[in-house]
Structures are given as structure tokens and as C-alpha cells.
Amino acid sequence: MTVPCVAVARERGEEVRRRLAEADAFAGEYEIDVADGTIYLPVTDRADVPESLRESVVDREPGRRETPTTPADLLGYEPSIERLGDVVIVDEADPDRAAEIAEAVMASDIPCETVVNRASPIEGELRVRRWDVLAGNGTETVHREYGHEFLLDIAEVYFSPRLATERRRIVEQVEPDEHAFDMFAGVGPYAIPMADAGAEVVACDLNERAVAYLRENAARNGVADRITAVHGDVREVATDWTGWADRIVMNLPHSADEFLETAAALAGDDCVIHYYDIQHEDDPFGPGRTAIEEAAGDDYDVTVETERVVRSYAPHELNVRLDARLTRR
Description:
methyltransferase, Rossmann fold, S-adenosyl-L-methionine, MeTrfase_TRM5/TYW2, tRNA processing, alpha/beta, Alpha-Beta Plaits, tRNA methyltransferase activity
């Protein structure tokens, strides 16, 4: 049977497979073929393939793959789980049900070394959680995203794999040799791809462990020469880069407004700020737009180029992004 497949260089296989999966276009019931350095990724339909990949679609006759055993097969219901590297995250209030899910995950075909259950909400200014380890014995893992690797410990740093596509949208805007400042960098999921795209990056975080992982990840991904990692409150440690930035990432949606004056000080003559916010659905973008304009003051003209809903955060609350260009007057 002929099936449409995206044909790309083998080394891009995992990156493209993830993009297809995120677009619900990957046809997992078929085998992935490799021939002469090209990998063929089966897709559900040509129309489902992201536009940038459609020219790579070819017809192929892949074999059908055996359906792997899933936790749902063993449990009789679909559990709420999330993968981060080889750690599987469970979100269950009932400890007996959580233990049951962990047992099924470990017995399934999911690649997994550790299963954890959320034991607390995100807490404190370092934005970390407490975890109950249900199976396995470690919370450090390597997460792979669009061709990059991130070593991290989920018990020591904040990381959300759900924002992979959002991060990719920012990185695709980066130009070689531009100056990019990541004000809340974590282990580097924005900073490292921006550096790999050719930018010179300064990446700051209040969490000392996150900065240590950031430095290791920069070396792991071959961009250590283009990233300066800084530990501390960005409002206190960023003075060496006043007027330096062409691009600023502000992914701290609950309190990014408290750092806008620092962002305005970092901005060069023409600078794009990627500002993340959480607001009520009735006016998700207005408060952020006003806050950016107030911080820019009389020094800059402000043009909001993009207003995007990233995801639903809570009932009637949205996580949003504004891309605001500051042009010095």
C-alpha cells in the first residue's frame, strides 16, 4: 500500500518526526524506512504535513509495524502521563492509582527509566516542583527537542516539554550574528537553539543549578563559544549589556512585567521583545501591551508585531505571547 512519507536527511529524522507528531501528522502504524542516508517518515495525509515540509513528501510502501504495548492496554483506561526524556510524569491525586499507572508504564513499551508523580505545584521563585518517585530512582534525564539535547533534573529546575513548538517559533525568527538576551533561561531551551542559529546569546537565570545545566548543555550542543551564562537576578547582573540586545526573550509569564524596565535598558536601537504573559481571556493582550509601552517610555516607538495565544492556562486564563519591536527614537 502506498503511503505518503516525508523524506529528509537521516540526521534530521528525530527533529522532523517530532514536528510531524506535534502536528498530528505522523502515521505511527507504519514502519520508518531508511535508505541511502534518507529517512522516510510516514504521514497521515499530505494536507496534515506542516507547509515547510510538504515539498519533501513522496510516496512509499512502508511495512506496518507491530502495535506496541501501551499503559492503556494494560490498565483498561488512558492514564494522564507526560514524557520528559526517559522520565514519565504522572499527575494523580490518588496514590494507589498513581502506583498502578507507574507499574503499567514500566511494563509497557514506553522507553522509560523513572516514573514520578507530581507532589506539589510549582513553588518558590525558582519555579520547581516536588516529586514522588514511583519507579526507578533518579530525576535527572536528557530531553531531546528539534535536534538539541538538554540534560536536566526535574527536581532542581523548571522545564516544560509542552512548549517545544512555541520555542521553535521564536528560534525560527533568529538571524545569524544578532545579539539575543534570554532573561529567564533555565537549562537553555531558547538560548541554545538561538546560538545554534548563529546568534550571540547572553542567558541569565536565578537558579544556580539551572545555570550549571545551561553551561553543560551549551557544550553538549556545540555552542559554548556563543553563549554567556549568567547566574543571578537579571535586574542586578545585566548592566554590562545595556543597549546591546537585538532580541530579548521574557518567558516568565506570571511576573515578566516586573522586569520590563530592565528589558528596555538592554534593548538596542532596534530590538524585538518576546514577552510572555498570563491574562484573563476577556483582554489577554492589553495589559502586556500597556506594560511594554510604559517601560519603553519616550525612548522607543513600540510596535506589537504578534499577539499569540500559546495555550490555555486555567479556566478563563490564557498564556499569551506578544512580540513587540522597540525602535529607538
